[in-house]
Write a structure and sequence with these properties.
The protein has five helices and seven strands. By secondary structure, it is of the alpha+beta class. The termini are far apart.
Length: 174
Amino acid sequence: MLNLIVLVIFALIAGILIYAATKPDIFRVERSINIKASPEKIFPLINDFHSWQAWTPYNKDPAMKKTYSGSDSGKGAHYAWEGNQDAGVGDITISESTPPNKLVFDLHMVKPFEARNVAEISLNATGDFTTVTWSLVDKHNLMLKTISLFVNLDNTIGKDFEVGLANLKAIVEQ
């Protein structure tokens, strides 16, 4: 009987891993919002990590240690943080800054788990409004593919993006 239980557990784990391996290798999260302002008014708030403090959804620890280095803003600007389990540990570096339309940054999470992602915020003007789109691209290894079977990462990360974009909109439109 014990052998049968072990065999069933092994088959279940193997089945989950095989199914997870069939999931796409690339994962993308994207959210957008329309803000009644020009890209020129919005871009400085995303191009300078010091300005992020006003709108980012990731200030989840009031005692979080924050370090800024590199350029003050734009390409080469670097921001690192170390916080509680909600905030984690990581850093961001702006790798591309094309005012007033596009910001690309490399995100390195250290805790709660190791991850390296490329994220982008783009601004596209249409009339009196600017569509601001925040996206993240990740390569999923087998572990993340397996986790994604049980945790909807698009919803989890997407909700944070929605909060951040709503905060940005409130600041710009006030």
